[in-house]
Amino acid sequence: MNQTVQARLVPQTEALLVKLMAEKRDLVIDGQRVFATSGESWGDKFLGGKIADSMAYLILATPRDDPRFARYVSGFRELSRLTLDDHLDTWGIFYYMAALDQLQRAGLLEQCVDAETLAALKTKLDWRTFVRPDLSLIDLPNNYYGVAFAISGMRHKLGWEDDSGMNTLVTKVLGHYRTFSESGFADETEGDGRFDRYSVLLIGEIAHHYVEIGLPPPPEVKAWLRASAQLALNRLNAQGDGFEYGRSIGAYGDTALVELVTIAAYLDVLTPQEKAAAYTYASVAANKYLRFWVDADTGSVNLWDKGRRTDAYRGKHRILGENLSLAQQYEYTNALWNEMGYAGRAPLADLIAWRRTRPELTTTWFSRGVYDRALVTLRDGDRLIGLPLINGGDGQHMNSPYYPIPFSPGLVAGVADSSLPQLLPQVTFSDGATLAPLAYFKHIEVTTDQGITTVMYHQDESDRLGQAKPLPDPRLKVETTYRFAPHLVTRTDVLTATQALDLRSIDIEFASYSPGLKLVHEGANWTATYAEGAAKSFAVSGFATCTLDAVDDRAYQTPSGPFVSRVKCTTGAIALMHPLTLSWRLRYE
Fold it and tell me: Using an 8 Å Cβ cutoff, are 240 and 281 in contact?
């Protein structure tokens, strides 16, 4: 991993920073202006901090007798003044504080930041800009308590405040864990049930913040870290693929696993065999980042073009910041592995063999109460399938990356910020209202018999789409059954109306990375077959008509690349007075 980072990643980042020092606010990367001009609102609110952190890393990685050292120190001074008046928020403040902390420890802070700028930064870089006096967050999900804790701790190290802030903040974030989660996975909401990549990663970030601040993580944090690491270990693979569902995945889904297993290894909550697998995965993911995510034609990470699509808040206007933060995640984890004595080591484990030793079925309970929240993880040979039974909550409940469907790299994926009816029925009323079985899971049951795993649950309310927050609608109840067999997954839904419903249609789609070959209609069944790729066939029952089409549209692009085909099915207009059964069956390689 160290060779990949030092020989390939650092030069890639260095080239961007040298270009920035030369062009300053006129910088353009891959056709995208990096800095907004006066009056434009699309600027990257984290960028100043990411620039500072990356420049600090570059300075510390450069020998002091190298002519570049003086240039980079001068560049830090220039860029800190250049960005001083730019809006800076949350993670941007964190990155800037991390930069100042590194420079302080190296005895270089006064050389890199002039006194006037440093005084202004002392006021600007404050966690209280996004945390109210009553300790409530200002329009942010709960993972930002960890950011505030880290900022406060580093301010304390610089002598800018006492330790009361960080002590209060860490009490707040750990209290949230105890209140809203069974096993230390953080609900991003106040109990609505959004458990995603951030929920798993956050305890790793908090544990690392303890290390950055110089404090030992308490046993409770290490126990929660172990639970998250266990979920991550089941996902390690030889391709470097990361977290499979929720927002901000793709390149960040890969680094999430890297960050989590690295800090878990550093704090000795992994066995020696697990550490070997974790180090190997980190090495593979770092190589994948430079091979797959960084575009050789532009020298920049690509999250947005050539068939890729990510969340709107990670728009291409953040192109420099995304390069810098992704590089930072590999750089700091590499530093931890080096500190553990892994510098120069080749990968230590066969991850294909490793995956085959992992459990074939794991149910991770996030919370249980009025509604159940869980993640069912299945292993079919070398293929991982993740079935999240969660609630995307405010702003995400209607988006397909949060659907209760069997996500699997290269086979099933969602589309960021899209309510595409991927693999589950969307029910549209004659008045235009749309319901879907998305958020209100009860009595989740997971059983295995003779090699077949069955997952059952019911929802007494459906989720009414069309607004930011989920809204339970009792007019439509849905009972769902999944069955997982080798190379086959089946879903059956029984829809029951609590009153006669006049429906415009019930619709479902399967957008696939595999090119469609043909569509056959036999009786009540429609079956699509595929020419190549992971999907072999997709069959549906209970729909009046289906079509199989090739797609070449931004609406069908995912973080890792485009879907190329789509099966689209509809019931047409119906009156729903009796229970209606709909099902699909997906065969895969």
Answer: yes
Helix H or strand E segment including 29: strand 28-29
- Pairing of the two strands 361-367 and 516-522: unpaired
Residue 282 belongs to some domain of the structure? no
DSSP line for 361-375: EEEEEEE-SSS-EEE
Task: Quickly list DSSP for 151-170.
Answer: HHHHHHHTTSS-SHHHHHHH
Tokens read off for 409: 């790299």
Q: What is the pLDDT of residue 178?
A: 81
What average pLDDT does the segment 190-198 reach?
Answer: 87
Confidence of residue 188 (pLDDT cuts 50, 70, 90): confident
Which 8-state DSSP code applies to residue 21?
H
The partner residues of 408 in beta bridges, in order of sequence, read 412
**Cα angle value 271/290/308 (rounded, 5°):** 105
Distance between CA 327 and CA 459 in Å, rounded?
A: 42
DSSP of 237-296: -TT-----SSSS-THHHHHHHHHHHHHHHHTT-S-HHHHHHHHHHHHHHHHHIIIIIEET
| Count: domains in the chain | 1
Query: Does residue 480 sit within a domain?
Result: yes
Confidence band (pLDDT; 50, 70, 90) for 36? Answer: confident
H or E element: which one contains 493?
A: strand 488-497
State the average pLDDT over residues 186-201: 86
CATH number of the domain that 493 lies in? 2.70.98
Q: Which of 336, 300, 333, 338 is nearest to 319 (CA)?
A: 300
**Using the 8-state DSSP alphabet, how is residue 297 labeled?**
T
- Residue 578 within any structural domain of the chain: yes
Closest by CA position to 572, among listed 463, 428, 421: 428
Is 124 part of a structural domain of the chain? no
Closest CA to 289 of 51, 10, 27: 10
**Tokens 């590999």 belong to residue:** 330
pLDDT of residue 38: 62
- Position with higher pLDDT, 191 vs 327: 327
Grade residue 293 by pLDDT with cuts at 50, 70 and 90: very high
pLDDT surpassing 90 at residue 425: yes
For residue 312, the model assigns a pLDDT of 92
pLDDT, greater one: 173 or 212: 212
DSSP letters along 510-541, please?
EEESSPEEEEEEETTEEEEEESSSSEEEEEEE
Contact 208, 259 (CB under 8 A): yes
Beta bridge partners of 387: 376
Average pLDDT (307-321) is 95
pLDDT in tens, 75-115: 999 999 999 999 999 999 999 999 999 999 999 999 999 99
Nearest CA to 95 among 329, 338, 337, 333? 329
Query: Would you state the structure tokens that stand for residue 423, as one six-digit string?
Result: 């693999």
For 425, the domain range is: 359-588
Exposure pattern of 282-309 as b/e (b: 16+ CB <10 Å)? bbbbbbbbbebbbeeeebbbbbbeeebb
